[in-house]
Write a structure and sequence with these properties.
Its main location: cytoplasm. By secondary structure, the protein is of the alpha/beta class. It has 12 helices and 15 strands. The protein binds the ligand C=C(O[C@@H]1C=C(C(=O)O)C=C[C@H]1O)C(=O)O.
Length: about 350
């Protein structure tokens, strides 16, 4: 028998052991699922999943990288959750969008997903119970906060239970073998803007009709797949979905471009992790008096609550020019000082969620 066949026999034995252990794991997951269903409690526990991944990465002495461990176990968790109770996850589409990439990076490839066309439709799907969780973008570190998400968090009754941060990386994907055979590039306006340097270097001499604007980078990938002699500036996941080979990767001008997404749920999911963040919507009561905001912020100081973010948004339910504030602070609602602040200021402060701070 050749050396490879010998080695493959070893792999088969290991795979058998992995499968047996995974089956044992699923037996236990199944028992946890029964308890959760009986007590009507949440299936998804991002804090617990993060704890397992961190522990395994610390324990690891072998050849697997931290990201490989994370990817493998996120799929295991996805399968586990499906066994406990299949739950639908809605994300801002279309398929292949960065929100889809964020969703898969957290819930794995096996989860049940539904792609919806607007941020509002994601809020609707979770509110009506059609989806258990919804994933929407909330902030880009170059462009700032996503206003529609902030406004809907203020208007609706949903909680943020977790955040996901992913780098915004674009690639040039095409079925063509060389740049010379590309006659058109499809993409979305922001992708064209964020890859200016690359486009100038490689396609600086092309006329405007060489660059074709479409609604989304995944539509661009689909078009590039369907049309000869074209390419798409798109996300990795869009290229993957449409089976388009990546000719150039990471072609965005700014490598620190990251987008933050939040997972929305109808019920809050409180668990202290030691590195938490709490989001509030604040509508000041005595906003006609000077110093009202200052007084509120002094309360934060007195409670020793560290402010991470404050952004104002217009109050849309009035014809006056009034504002409410989106505030992130360090800590968890289970912390005494935050709980106390929410309780004493309940007429002004709406709790939007406590979750692990990944920023
Ligand atoms: C099994 C559980 O349910 C889910 C699946 C997990 C897993 O596969 O380890 C971990 C956390 C939960 O998202 C659990 O809560 O422990």
């Amino acid at each position: 028998m050749s050396e490879i066949s010998e080695l493959r026999k070893d792999i088969d034995t290991i795979d058998d052991a992995i499968l047996d252990l995974l089956s044992k794991r699923m037996e236990i997951v199944n028992q946890i699922g029964i308890i959760k269903r009986e007590s009507n409690s949440l299936i998804y526990h991002p804090d617990r999943e993060k704890e397992i991944i961190d522990r395994l990465i610390n324990r690891n002495k072998g050849k697997l990288s931290a990201s490989a461990i994370e990817a493998i176990f996120l799929e295991v968790f996805g399968v586990s959750r499906n066994l406990e109770l299949p739950e639908l996850i809605s994300y801002l589409g279309p398929e292949g969008s960065f929100t889809h990439q964020a969703a898969e990076s957290r819930f794995g490839a096996v989860a049940d997903y539904i792609s919806l066309p607007s941020i509002k439709s994601i809020f609707d799907s979770v509110e009506t119970g059609r989806a258990k969780y919804g994933i929407v973008p909330i902030e880009n570190n170059q462009e700032g906060m996503v206003k529609e998400t902030m406004d809907l968090l203020y208007e609706r009754n949903l909680f943020i239970i977790s955040e996901i941060i992913i780098p915004v990386n674009f690639c040039l994907a095409t079925k063509e073998q060389s740049l010379q055979s590309i006659n058109q590039i499809f993409s979305k306006d922001i992708a064209f803007n964020q890859c200016q340097g690359f486009l100038n270097d490689y396609f600086g001499s092309k006329s405007n009709d060489f660059f074709v604007q479409v609604d989304s980078t995944s539509k661009a990938a689909k078009l590039a797949n369907d049309t000869k002699s074209t390419a798409a500036l798109c996300s990795h996941i869009a290229a993957k979905i449409y089976g388009l080979p990546i000719l150039f990767d990471n072609i965005q001008d700014n490598d620190s471009n990251q987008t933050r997404f939040v997972i929305l749920s109808k019920v809050e999911n409180l668990k202290k992790t030691g590195k938490d963040k709490t989001s509030f919507a604040v509508k000041l009561k005595d906003d006609h008096k000077p110093g009202t905001l200052l007084k509120l912020l002094q309360e934060f100081e007195e409670e020793k609550i560290n402010l991470l973010k404050i952004e104002s948004r217009p109050q849309k339910d009035t014809n006056e020019f009034k504002f409410w504030f989106f505030i992130d602070v360090e800590g968890n609602k289970l912390d005494q000082n935050i709980e106390h602040l929410i309780e004493t200021k309940k007429e002004e402060i709406t709790f939007l969620g406590s979750y692990m701070n990944l920023c």
